[in-house]
Amino acid sequence: MTLKAFAIKNIQHHRNSYQAYFLSCIFAVWVFFLYASLLFHPILDNKLIPEQFVFLLYMVEGIVAIFAFLFIGYSQSAFLRNRKQDIGLLQVLGMPVGQVVRMLFWENLFVGFLALLVGVIAGLISEKFFLLAISYILHIPNPIPFDFSFVAIMFTTFFFLCLFLILSWWSRYSIQKQSINAVLREKVQEKKRPTFSIWLVVVSLVCILMAYMLSFTISFAGMMKYFLIILVMILIGTYLGYTQLSVVVISLIEKMPKWFYRKINMFLFSQLRFRLKDNANILFLVTIFTSIVLTSVGVSITYYMEADKVAQEQAPYHVSMINSPINPSQMQQKIAANGLRLQRYIHFSIIQMETTDRAKNKNNPTVYVMDNSALNVLLKQANQETVLIGSGEVVQVKNSGAWAKDKKQNKSDLFSVQHHNQLSYQWKWSDSVQGILFNEHDQTRLMWAVADDTFQKLKKGNEVLSVEAYQFTNYQKTKGLLSDLKKMYHLQQKDEMQVNGTFIVQTFFQNLFSPLLFVSVFIGLLFFLAAGSILFFRLYIELPVERHQLSLLSKLGLHEKEGQMILVRQIQILFLLPFVVGSIHSIVALHLFSFLLDRPVYVSFLWIWLIYFVLGTVYYGWTKRQMIRAL
Questions:
Q1: How distant, in Å, are the alpha carbons of 56, 303, 381 from that of 516?
Q2: Mean per-residue pLDDT over the chain, rounded
Q3: Neighbours of 152 (CB within 10 A)
Q4: 573 found inside a domain
Q5: DSSP labels, 148-207
Q6: Quick check: 42 and 147 in contact, CB under 8 A?
Q7: I need a labelling partner for 439 at 20 to 30 A (CA). Which of 398, 474, 539, 589 fits?
Q8: Rounded to whole angstroms, what are the CA distances from 293 to 183, 296, 444, 603, 607?
Q9: Over the range 9-30, which residues count as b (16 or more CB within 10 Å of their CB) and which as e?
Q10: Sorting pLDDT into bands at 50, 70 and 90, what band is 265?
Q11: Quick count: other Cβ atoms within 10 Å of Cβ 340?
């Protein structure tokens, strides 16, 4: 029998352990090929696809490539650990290490080539649907046509063949390091009882609690500052939770005799103590994968579905302009031409000034001042209480949802502003108003409000900007009007950003989060298969140990069904524990990333969670069935 024929027989014999690996490889090839087919599509030459989305395509291709390298590498090392006894026995029977390496090389190459073939064929079959989905998401008028890209096929084939060849050849080093004596004696080596450090347990709890507290208390500005710190604390707390806290929990369970000695619990938790400690790294990875999938898909789909509501909150006025390029009569004509019905119109002025005290406006000495009456109009429209500003007082208006909630200014905090006639005004802070009162422009993001009589004095010698805004019965119809206004700003060589509206903000969020949603779904499926497959591989590696333990339990008087129940309970815990911990992390992360909504939205996340739970349950059922059959 040749080595190639022997390798094929080994694949058939170990087909149960190869199933999860084979399906995951197919999915990795399939996703890689789909994105490669779009990256090499002729439509990119026409620049119909935004550059931001093309960047996402390259990023996804890179993520899939890195994932394939790490996942396939881990899978092969898992198979080698699972077949230590076989490899040691073959060497005892006289097979040289070189022939063992070549046999495993042919096994991996056969499985990899078959996965590559099936993945490319699946990609060609589904490419048309993939391109239609891209066209719908990017709002391309004419759907992207199907293109049989020979370059994409060769690129995918070359990458994965090189990957399988490199990883298969690399396995020889791990085999050469194995001692036959150590491999055959591994069965009878005694395992040390897992221990824990009380200090590491405290560090784990403190890290997780601090990360959760920061996530629920910081603002958008704080998130940008503390995001990396929160991430590091979550990673440390989760890892130490599996390596240390799990041992503590089982030790506490052992001290509850009424529950610990009930039915099969003693055998279950006695084995689980070792299993959780041994599988801490795997459970940590699966938890992080679960958190990434639920968070990325949950955040993307939440913002995509809430784009309309977020747009109306972030831009309460359907059309707003700074220094309008047309007169009121022309504006009325354009409103009528676009079939719009006016509901509300506001108009006020702001003054552009400079403060001599940069401590009050650190980023830019330029400030924009509005009068008390205009501020009260905006406050009434936003259902907030009006304010009364006295002479020599200033109210700071933070017109954005992204500002941190700072404490109010001290009324005794005096500062100066320079007027055009070189006179310096001494003002003091009266109050601070925060919220989305008006559409966000560069001039309206942060404003100062003063008394009406003070405002009239400041108008002399300073640049006065006209601000106006409109509300209609249906903001979706303002697309044409906003487009015309932008063209008119451009013709008059003005900044087009001085016009804003609800439709512009809604389009921005849809264009931003629809590609992210599309990408996150594919990456989520990839990570989901990785999480399930890693658990399956780990359980399959421990299969010989499970057989030995079931044999011992049967000698102690346990029935076969009771022994299988112990195994099933352990599999349930290994699947359920990272899912629960990852879900909690994701709920906290969703709250952290919901800064634009000013509230956590869990409805869409709940659907994603249910879908993930159902898929995870199916994967668990399949894993349990394979394990029971193998036993």
A1: 8, 10, 34
A2: 78
A3: 24
A4: no
A5: --HHHHHHHHHHHHHHHHHHHHHHHHHHHH--HHHHHHGGGPPPPPP---HHHHHHHHHH
A6: yes
A7: 589
A8: 38, 5, 38, 17, 13
A9: ebbeebeebbebbbebbbbbbb
A10: confident
A11: 20
Spatial CA neighbour of 325 closest among 479, 504, 468: 468
Q: HSE (CB half, 13 Å, CA atoms) of 29?
A: 31
**Are 590 and 302 in contact, with CB atoms under 8 Å apart?**
yes
Query: 396 is written with which tokens?
Result: 């700071």
pTM, 2 dp: 0.70
pLDDT in tens, 276-326: 776 777 788 888 888 888 888 888 887 777 778 888 888 889 999 998 888
Comparison of pLDDT for 268 and 621, the residue scoring more = 621
Mind giving me the DSSP string for 304-346? HHTHHHHHHHH--SSEEEES-SS-HHHHHHHHHHTT--EEEEE
| Residue 510, domain member (yes or no) | no
Q: Which of 500, 521, 555 is the last residue of a domain?
A: 500
DSSP string of 393-410, one letter each residue: EEEEEE-STTS--PPPPP
Helix axes 198-217, 560-592, angle to 10 degrees: 40
How is residue 30 written in tokens? Answer: 């399939």
Is residue 295 within 8 Å of 589, Cβ to Cβ?
A: yes
In a domain, 166, yes or no: yes
Q: Which of 481, 500, 519 is the last residue of a domain?
A: 500
Helix (H, G, I), strand (E, B) or coil at 364: coil
Q: What is the pLDDT of residues 351-378, one digit of tens each?
A: 887 765 544 555 556 788 899 999 999 9
Residue whose entry in the numeric block shows the structure tokens 């309309």? 308
Query: 3-state class of 89 per DSSP?
Result: helix
What is the C-alpha to C-alpha distance for residues 475 and 504, in angstroms, rounded to an integer?
10
Highest mean pLDDT among 415-424, 549-558, 584-593: 584-593
Six token digits for residue 38: 């779009």
Residue 596's pLDDT band, with cuts at 50, 70 and 90, is: low
| pLDDT tier at 415, thresholds 50, 70, 90 | low
Spatial CA neighbour of 585 closest among 198, 221, 233: 233
Could you read off the pLDDT of 436-448 as tens digits, one per residue?
888 888 888 888 8
Query: What are the residue ranges of helices labelled H in 479-602?
Result: 479-491, 502-541, 543-555, 560-592
Q: Which domain holds residue 434?
A: 316-500
Contact 19, 626 (CB under 8 A): yes
The total domain count for the chain is: 2
Which token pair is 397? 């208006």
Residue 298 lies in a domain: no
